[in-house]
Fold these 4 entries.
Entry 1:
Amino acid sequence: MKSGVLVKIHESADKSILAVADKELVGKTFEEVDMCLNVSERFYKGEELSEEEVIKLMKNATNMNIIGKKAIAIGIKAGIITEDNVIKVKGIPHAIIFNYGN
C-alpha cells in the first residue's frame, strides 16, 4: 500500500540526502514573515513508496529533509525524529536531519 509521500535520493561524491514529502505538497511554496518553505519538484518529486519502504530508507539515511504531516508521522514512527525536531511554516511540518560525521 502506498504511503502518500514521495521519496527522492540525491547523491553526491561523498554524501546523500533523502528528500521525503507529502505528495500533495510537492510543487508548492509556503511563506511566513521570516521563513519560506519551497517544496520544489526538482528536489522532492520522486517515487511514491510504501510506509515500510520509506522507513527502511530513513533508517539507512544520514541526511534527510522531511516535509508534510504524513512524512513527519513516518519519521516519528521510524524513531528518526521527535516532535521537538519539527518546525512549522504555515502549518506545514518540516524537519531536517544532518549527520556531519562519516
Entry 2:
Amino acid sequence: MALHYLFVIFFFSAFLVALYRLLFLQDITIFPALVESTFESAKTGFEISLFLTGVLCLWLGIMKIGERGGVVDYMAKATAPFFKHIFPEIPKGHPVFGPMLMNFSANMLGLDNAATPLGLKTMEGLQELNQEKSTASNAQIMFLVLNTSGLTVIPVSVMVYRSQMGAADPTDIFLPILLATFFSTLVGLLVTAAYQRLNLFKKQPLMVLGGATLFVIAMIVLFTKLDQSQVSMISSVVSNFLLFGIIILFLLMAVRKKANVYDAFIEGAKGGFDVAIKIIPYLIAILVAIGVFRTSGVMDYLLLSLEWMLGLFGFDLSFIPALPTALIKPLSGSGARGLMIETMSTYGADSFAGRLASIMQGSTETTFYVLAVYFGSVNIRKTRYALTCGLIADAAGIIAAIFLAYLFFF
C-alpha cells in the first residue's frame, strides 16, 4: 500500500510542478522531457534487471551449496547460546530456528527477495507458539526488528547496481555497510530487549555483544588514523577477500559432506532467475515514477529546502542528495532502490552521494513493508511496539551510514 501512495504522489506532484513551469516559467520543454524520462527510465530498469539475473543466480546457487554443506546446522549450533537469551519463548531445538537462520543469512547477503519467503515461514512457526493469535508475541517482534534492522554482511544487490552504474570498484561500500548495519542491528536489539525486559547483562550475551562492539569500534578508530587512499585500499582488499573466501568455505563444507556441488548450485541458481524476472515490472514502475519526479524538478526543490534548513545550523551538506534513499527505504525497498540508482545516475556511482546512497540502501530495511507482510501473513492485528523499535533501528542505521561515508569517502 505504501508503494501505491508513493507511485501516485510521484506522478501527480511531477505533473503539478511541470504545469507550473509551463504556465508561469514558459518552459515549453518540460513535458517532452517528462515523456522522454519515462522511456529512458523503463530502459534502465530492464537493463539493470537483466544484469541482476546473473548475480542472483550466482549467489543463490552458492547459498544452496552452503545449505547442502550444513551451513544452517553450524549456524544453529553457533548461535544457540546467544539466541536462547533473546528468544526465551522458543523451546530449545525448535524447527523454527532453521528458516529463521536462513532468513538472516539471506539478509546478510543482501538478497531481500530470497529472504522474504524464509521470513514468512519463520512467522508461521512463531505463530504456532503464540498464545494470543491476534497479538504479536515477544519472539515475533524480536525477529521482525532484527529482520528490519537489516544486518548485511555481503550486500550483493547493492554491489550489482553499483557495477551496472559504472563504479570503478563496486565493492568499496562493503565495509561501511557492514559497520552501519551492525549499529542498526545493535540498537534495534537493545531497544527491543528493553521493551521485553530481557537481561542481556549475562556472560554469553555480554561476550557476544561486547566483543562485537569493541571490534567495530577498533576498526573505526583504525580507519580514522589512515588517509583516504589507505582506507579505500583496505576496504577493497578485505571486501573482495571475504567475498571469495565465503565461496571457498561453502564449497569446502559441501565437499566435506559429499554433496553434489554442481547440482546444488544449479538448483539454487534457478531460483535466482525466477526472482530476477519477478523484479522487472516493479523496478521499471518505480524508476519511471522517480524519473518524472526528478525531471519535473520536484526532487530538486525538496533537496534545496533541506539544504536551506540544515545550512542554518552550519552542517556540511554533501550528504543531502543521498537522503531521499534513506527516507523512502522504510516505506519501500523498490522505491529506495530506484532512488539509489537515480542518485548514482545523476551524481555518479563513485561520487560521495552515490556511495552514501548505496550505504543507506544496504544499512536499513523496509520496516513498514516487512511489518505489513509478515504480520499480515499470520493475521496479526496488534503489533504492539514493533514499529517503534524498527524505526529506531532504521534511524541508527541512517546516522551511522552518514558518519561512515564521511569517514571512508569524504
Entry 3:
Amino acid sequence: MNTLTIILIIVVVIVLAVVLLYNSLIRLRNQVDNSWAQIDVQLKRRNDLIPNLIETVKGYAKHEKELFENITKARSALVAADTLDKKAKASNQITETLKSLFAVAENYPKLRANENFLQLQEELTGTENKIAYSRQNYNDLVMSFNTKMQNFPNNVLVKMFSFKAKDLFQATEKEKEPVKVKF
C-alpha cells in the first residue's frame, strides 16, 4: 500500500468516528428532550385533574379558602412556566399543595367516602407516580448525555458543535424535609 492510501484510510476512519460520535450525541439529546416531553404530558394531565378535585373538595371544605387559592396559584404558575426550571419549581409547588389538600380531606369523612373524590384522588396518585418515574427516566438520560459529552474525544466534538449540558430535575429543599404528621 502506498502512503496516499494509508492517509485516505486514516481520514475515512476519523470522519466515520466523528459522524458516529456526533450521531450518538444527537440521539441522546433527542431522548432527553423526549423524556422531558413525557414529564410535560404528565404535568398537563395532573393540571387538568386539579380543577375537578378542587370543586369536589370545595363542597365539603368551604373554609379552606387559602388552600384552594394556593393550589390555583401553583397551577397557574405551571401553565405560565416557559423554562424547564420554572416548570420544575411550579410542579414541586403543586405536589406540596396537593399533599395539603389530601391532608385536609382527612378531616372530612363524607368527602373521603365520596366516589368522585376517591376516583380523582386515585387518578392524581397514579399521575404523581408517572411523574416520579418520568423524572427518574429524564435524570438517567441527562446523566448519560452529560457523561457522554464529557468523555474524550466527545468533549472535543461538543465544543465544535456547541452541545450544551442538560440540567437534572431536582427536588427543592422543601421537598427534602421530612413530612410532618399531626393528629
Entry 4:
Amino acid sequence: MTSAKLVGSANKALAILTSFTLDKLERGVSELSRELGLHKATVHHILKDLERWAFVQKDEKTQKYRLGMRLLELGDLVRRNSDLIQNSQPFLDGLSRKTGGTVTLRILEKDSLLVLAKAESVHNLKITYDVGSRLPCNFGASGKLLLAFLPVGEFRRLARMGKIRRLTPRTVVNPRELEQEFERIRRRGYAFSSEQAISGARGVAAPIRDRLGNVVAALGFSMPVSLLPQNKVPEITREVLETAAAISARLGYPPQLNEERMDKGARDDGRRAAAR
C-alpha cells in the first residue's frame, strides 16, 4: 500500500497495525516506512501514539515494536460479542471431546482462511491451529467447502490471482477439477480432505448457515491419518454434519440433513482415502 492511498492519520495507523503478521511479529520504523511509503517521522509519531494507548509496545533492545495488550483485550471483547463464535464454541468443545479430534471454526476473509475459534484434541499426536491465524483459501476440507459456496466468478478470480496454492503433493490446484469437486461438495453438503493440506492428516468440514441459509463459516474436523482410518470416515462425517446443523439451528437455520446422501458420500470418501 502506498502513501497516496493512506490519507488521514486513522488510515495510516490502521495500515501500521495490520502490517503485523505471524511472519512479522516485530516491525521497525524504517521497514514500515519503506513498506507503506510513509515518511519515517510520520511512522515514528504514529507508533508513539499507538504505544501510549497500549496498541503497540517497544522492545528497548531491538528498538522494534510489537502489538500491545490493548488489542488482546479488544479481541476478547469481539469474541465475546460474536454470535457466531458464542453459539459455536460449546459445540466445538463437545465434538472434540466426543471424537478426539481438533475442531475449528473458519471463515473466508480477504482471500484467506481465518481461524475464528477452536477446540483442540487432547491426544499427544494431533493437528493444531492458532485462533486468528490465516491459511491459504484452499487449505484442507474447510477451505474447499467455503470456496464451493462462493460465486463461481469469485473463485475464478482467486485462481487467477494465484491464491489456490499447492500445499502437499496431493493438493488439487487445477480450477476445472476443483469446480467439479465443488459440485459434489454442494450436492452432499460437506467436504473431505486426505493429506491435501497437511501430509499425514485428514479432515472433514460442513457448512454453518445463518437464518437465511447463507453459508457463514465452516466447521472443520482434523485428525492424523493414523487415528482416522477408512472405516471411521463415515462416523466422523456424520458427527461433523450433525454438529454443524446444530450450530446452524442456533443461528436460526432449520436442520436439513440428508442422511442417505451423507452416508453414501462418506463411504465413497473412505474408499478414496484407502486407495491413496
